[in-house]
Design goal:
By secondary structure, the chain is an alpha/beta fold. It has 2 domains: 6-200, Alpha-Beta Complex (2-enoyl-CoA Hydratase, Chain A, domain 1), CATH 3.90.226.10; 204-251, Lyase 2-enoyl-coa Hydratase, Chain  A, domain 2. It contains 11 helices and 10 strands. The strands form 2 sheets. A 6-stranded mixed β-sheet has the order 1-2-3-5-7-10, sandwiched between helices. A 4-stranded mixed β-sheet has the order 4-6-8-9. A hairpin with a 2-residue loop joins strand 1 (6-11) and strand 2. Helix 1 (30-45) packs parallel to helix 3 (76-95), helix 3 (76-95) runs parallel beside helix 4 (111-118) and helix 5 crosses helix 6 (155-164). The longest helix is centred in the first third of the chain and has 20 residues, at 76-95. Octanoyl-coenzyme A binds at residues 24-25, 27, 64-69, 79, 82-83, 86, 107, 109-111, 133-134, 137, 141-143.
Amino acid sequence: MEYKNLLVESADGVALLTINSPRTMNALNSEVLGELECALYELNLDDGVKAVVLTGAGEKAFVAGADIKEMSTMNAHEGHQFGLKGQRVMMLIGKMRKPVIAAVNGYALGGGLELALACDFIYASTRAKVGFPEVTLGIMPGFGGTQNLARLIGANKANELIFTGRMISADKALAWGIVNEVFPPEELLARARETASAIAGVGSLGVAYAKDAIATGLNMTKDDGFRYEASLFGVLFATEDQTEGMGAFVDKRKAEFKGK
Ligand code: CO8
């Protein structure tokens, strides 16, 4: 499918999804959010895609937030609908059967940071700046940021970032545990693709079930999480990938996974 605001390309099991409206710093308006929902849905259904890298076009921004110009005239009902639309995209990433890596190449602010936090993990360039400026606009994060950030780095640091509206550097985001690694700008995409390729080369069912176990388990007691993990672990023993993966180890050959 063709998109007005997105570029989608895929090769060797890895899809690169680029939000392509650099003139507005890739801000998320209703149209971009709608396209993102469609593209992510399609990528999830595409068995040829095993991992996705999500980034922003241009040198300045990953995504500089939800579109302030569009939001500035919304009434309460429209604001509610807009919030729900954004949350649908964030939740879809969490429910996808394949990992999505955010490659944060510049500003990731407000809804942009929420989008990155909805991904399975974040790589950033040294140019990245992240923050939640919503309170400077008289609102608060509304695409899951309060929930995802506090779960990721704890309430104290999340409180400081969200209550002040300040931006922090890539290095501080690394130290706080928001991003996994920081790379020079010219290396960021290659490194994100390299990791996505490594994921594309292993058993995709194991990855999908592990993603489910981690995400679902975070909302359970530890006992229930262990039980949930065991049930998914057991199901994998009914798959061809398990037979192939363990058979290949025993035969001392490279496994050929089929995702079945
Ligand atoms: N929305 C709309 N347009 C934007 C946005 C944005 N978030 N960010 C940048 N732009 C536009 C600018 O208006 C400008 O357009 P134009 O040339 O037509 O004036 C263009 O992008 C370039 O921006 P700047 O000239 O400002 O570039 P600078 O390099 O000087 O500054 C910044 C870059 C620091 C990123 C600056 O643009 C900025 O502060 N942007 C706003 C950041 C922000 O506040 N983001 C949070 C938005 S609120 C949000 O995301 C809420 C999410 C939850 C919603 C829930 C709904 C219920």
